Amino acid sequence: MARALIHMPASARRGDIIEIRALIGHPMETGYRVGADGKLLARDIIRTFECRYNGETVFGAELHQAISANPYIAFFTVATESGTLECKWDGDNGFTHTEKMTITVSAS
């Protein structure tokens, strides 16, 4: 199972711009390298990342073989209401991992 770290504020004021930073532990094998036995190593990459804020997509990315192992993604969104941010990674070989974080948004 992959290990993910998400850093974001636990609370914000309505209208504040918040930064979300997500890191997931994953080897990201490109499928182009040759192993010790001389055969190509099977491709094993994370293909997509999506973050949903109370069910609405606020950020998404397609990842390819050139992405490093343990991909780190940082982005910004506007704090609109209290709720849940759900980050989801999907990859090869049926890989999927989801992390949820809550945020409390105050009026001002």
TrEMBL record:
Transmembrane segments: none
InterPro entries: Ig-like_fold, Ig_E-set, SoxZ, SoxZ_dom
Pfam families from the UniProt entry: SoxZ
Domain Sulphur oxidation protein SoxZ: 9-101
Protein name: Thiosulfate oxidation carrier complex protein SoxZ
Organism this protein belongs to: Duganella radicis
